[in-house]
Amino acid sequence: MLDWSKLLNDKRFSELLRRMKSSGGPQPPDFARTQFRKPAERDHDRILFSTPLRRMGDKTQVFPLESIESIRTRLTHSYEVANLARSIGIELSNSLRDRLPDDACRTIPAVLAAVGLAHDIGNPPFGHKGEKAIRSWFNRNSASLFDVPNDSTDESVTEDLSKLTEQHKNDFLLFEGNAQTLRVVSKLQVIGDDLGLNLTVGTLASLMKYVAPSNNVDENERPKKARSKVGFFATEQKLVERIREEVGLQGDCRHPLALVMEACDDIAYSVLDIEDSIKKGLVSLNDLIAWLKANGGADANGDEQVRYICKISEWERKEIAKQKLYPSELNDVSTQKFRMHAINVMVSAVLEAFKEHYDLIIEGDFDGELIEISKAAKLCSALKNFGMENAFNHRTVLEIELKGYNALNRLMDHLWTGISHRKNYNDVGSDRLTPFATYVYSRISKNYRRVFEGTVTCYHEVQHLPIRYREMQLLTDMVSGMTDRFCMDLHDDLVKHHVEMRAVGETAA
Description:
Elements: H1 4-7, H2 13-16, H3 39-48, H4 51-55, H5 74-95, H6 104-118, H7 127-140, H8 142-146, H9 155-161, H10 166-173, H11 177-188, H12 201-207, E1 212-213, E2 230-232, H13 237-247, H14 256-279, H15 285-295, H16 304-321, H17 327-356, H18 358-362, H19 377-392, H20 395-420, H21 435-442, H22 446-453, H23 467-480, H24 484-503
Parallel strand pairs: 1-2
């Protein structure tokens, strides 16, 4: 049985790991001592003001390198997920008040708003195509990365590569933005040490949609949801074990609030991304309604939610048409009305599903998705299928995605030169072998390089990891932290310098 007082644990790792506070500074006066926010509310604010969150303003949600400013980015998507999650949290904390701690009415909405903001913070540029590009690069280079060269004369390289485990390799072959998110907020936002944003363990546990290491992902046709994707990397394994111990989670059990955040992500993806598709002119609202009627079960004996959404949307459009708007305005306003009604139906269904399955969830035996077991399951599925078949796979979208995919692969080639081409294999900060490698290494974030070189104060327990693993993780840290435009700009810059170097005899990567 899960215990909410543990699930909402507000301890920070700085407390658990006994980080020493700086001494000798001036004592704050009374007016500077006030702290009226709950720890979870401070978590939300730390995420909100963080640099990685702001970078998501130039990261792809669905449509990469978009010129229409009102089209959603990862940042606006995250704001909307956070808002939906907070709203559900308010209702849950009030309706379940007799089963929750006294301060849950503030803590639960704050945790859900925080994890809604942060859930995509580790995603690379170009959305899910960026994740695929990273995986493909490691698969393409797996032999040179993982296998000891036949002609190797450096015993230190041979010994190091022999330490790579299945988990070490799969962390990159199965790279996941979800696992990178945990790494960013818990370690990479370096402010003098390796505690990242130093969030509470309750918030960190709620952030984890998946709980499997990369060597234990469920590959069945219908996998267990908790293990269907990589939840964390080897570098964060000890951290995850400590988090789950502190909040009372065992086995494959996921935090109840992670289930809510996941459902809100599904709602945003299925409804709001289609709104953007309509705004871009790839499809129309009439196309969507016709699709729902044909594929969503909107007939008299079909799905009640789908039927209602179609009926109310057509009625709203007729009412709005009476205002004699321009066609583009009519389409835009009608689509907004569709979004409003669809979100209301789906949020209500998720709330009902959580309450109906509360006992199973709190016993730790729930392994599904709230949206899939809700009354809005058919609606959500139909919307996702419509978006995938009629908008997200549109030729103009695929062309730009392909451009980003190819650029990211070439960029990783050059970054690997800067990371791996150095004089001393065992000294990761040693001089690079060529001027090009030196230049490339200088373009990698100082924060990430400090973590890679081990020059920051460390509090998390870190198991000894092969140098090759650390090299590959520096590569993914750098790439995942980029915005779409920075990725393209850095790619163009390194290609230019690489060509110039080759012109004067510099060898290629």
